[in-house]
Design goal:
single chain; eight-stranded mixed sheet; six-stranded parallel sheet; 14 strands; Rossmann fold
Length: 473
């Protein structure tokens, strides 16, 4: 049975709504009719899914919906990605190439840079970057550009879902007006929702299907459409009252981690001065079975979420004359960590009668976390930049990133990869562990290196034996 319709006492205006701003009766009926058609197509797997942005998040969604029997069209402006997928090759380690090849062969996956093909899909999921500007402000240009591209090809009955992390209000204040520019009305002609991505690269315990999916709609019909879509693909859908709530929930998740990581980073620097081992302190505190969750220090924050997302809320909060002091302080602390590592390295080298200028250094790991091939916002790049400015001669090794990636803010770096050999280790004034990949043999590295600067306590089990050449930073 359909929900009771709200009463409409005023005549519809030219934009399809009543004069008091509520949807007109005919608009509600038309919206419900289109919703029922979309829900039916989703449930019988005849709905075609479009994914805009084929990066780490987008490609996982492509695999998810294709695995559930949906036909998927992936859109990206990077022609290199399109060509690789067309040949059945994956560029994301967690999505095997044979899986992509299978879906391409079965015609369940088409990758294209032709956005005119948006007319062929029933649901569009947006997974584009949301970086910060050089001034530290939210850069929603990719979201706006994508909304404009979709608006040009939007057709009645389609669902549009934004997954890119942004500040509360982005879906309603940016997406909705852009999508409505050509005359279609949200809730009547198309549906719009926000559902934050919650991927954890490298985490084999929680797959995309297993992670609960938060969904918030611009209106009730949009919520129902998005809940139905994700309900066919994931184990649990969490409905919230609005897209703004869903946007805020994603920010809370990442701010929680940002603030706690900043806390242990500050404690690491504090305890270092006191001669206290912060890793031992954390291990001891973690034995408490309640009221404590262990977070670990490092050389700085990485990934697309934690270093960036908190500042989206800080920026939006200023619109409401509110200062987010915890968030801003946490950001400042985490940004300082590469400088701290640099300082420790310089101090140790000076103690051995060496300088950073001209020092031959080897950096282990470019990825922002262990055992993944994702370099986005990795603190390794800032550390490389600082070392280059100081005149050090730096090379790197990362088994998951064999060639130096093209990075938006670090195109000027001239760093080459080297093979990890006994000779290479011995010929370096210092080896810096930035990413604690499991593939690294840390005792072997300690054995053949002159000096190892460990930012993750990766060499902890071998500390007693090799303490004369191991520095933790």
């Amino acid at each position: 049975m359909k929900d009771a319709l709200p009463s409409v006492t005023k005549s519809p205006s030219s934009n399809g709504h009543s004069q008091d701003g509520r949807p007109a009766l005919l608009d509600i009926e038309l919206g419900r009719s289109r919703l029922e058609g979309l829900l039916h197509k989703i449930k019988i797997r005849q709905a075609r899914i479009g994914v805009v942005g084929l990066g780490y998040v987008g490609l996982l969604l492509v695999r998810l919906f294709a695995a559930k029997g949906f036909s998927v069209i992936g859109f990206d402006i990077d022609q290199g990605k399109i060509e690789k997928l067309g040949r059945g090759h994956s560029y994301v380690r967690s999505v095997p190439s044979d899986t992509i090849a299978h879906y391409v062969k079965e015609k369940r996956l088409l990758a294209t840079s032709d956005f005119r093909k948006l007319t062929l899909v029933d649901a569009v999921i947006i997974c584009v970057p949301t970086p910060l500007t050089p001034e530290g402000k939210p850069d929603v240009s990719f979201i706006r550009a994508t909304a404009l591209s979709i608006a040009e090809h939007l057709k009645p009955g389609q669902l549009v879902v934004l997954e890119s992390t942004s500040y509360p209000g982005t879906t309603r204040e940016i997406m909705k007006p852009e999508l409505e520019k050509r005359g279609l009305v949200c809730g009547r002609d198309f549906f719009l929702a926000f559902s934050p991505e919650r991927e954890d690269p490298g985490n084999k315990k929680f797959t995309t299907e297993m992670i609960p999916k938060i969904v918030g709609g611009v209106d009730e019909l949009s919520l129902r459409a998005a809940v139905c879509l994700y309900g066919e693909a994931v184990a649990q859908v969490v409905q919230v009252s609005s897209c703004e709530t869903a946007e805020a929930a994603k920010l809370l998740e990442n701010i929680y981690r940002c603030v706690n990581i900043a806390l242990v980073n500050e404690l690491k620097m504090c305890f270092d001065r006191m001669g206290i081992d912060v890793w031992e302190v954390i291990e001891a505190a973690a034995t408490k079975p309640f009221g404590f969750q262990a977070f670990y220090p490092g050389p700085g924050l990485g990934g697309h979420c934690i270093p960036i997302d908190p500042f989206y809320l800080s920026w939006k909060a200023r619109e409401f004359q509110f200062s987010t002091r915890f968030i801003d302080l946490a950001g400042e602390l985490n940004v300082q960590m590469p400088y701290y590592v640099l300082g420790k390295l310089e101090e140790v080298l000076n103690g051995k009668g060496k300088k950073l200028e001209g020092a031959r250094l080897l950096l282990l790991g470019l990825a922002y976390k262990k055992d993944i091939d994702d370099p986005r916002e990795s603190p390794a790049f800032k550390l490389l930049e600082l070392l280059e400015v100081k005149g050090a001669k730096v090379a790197y090794n990362d088994p998951y990133i064999p060639s130096f990636p093209a990075m938006r803010h670090y195109r000027h770096l001239k760093v080459r990869p080297v093979e990890l050999t006994e000779k290479e280790l011995a010929g370096r004034d210092a080896v810096i562990i930035v990413t604690n990949h499991s593939l690294f043999d840390y005792e072997w590295i300690l054995k053949h290196s002159q000096l190892v600067v460990d930012t993750h306590n990766a060499c902890g089990p071998y500390r007693q034996r090799w303490q004369e050449k191991l520095i933790r930073a």
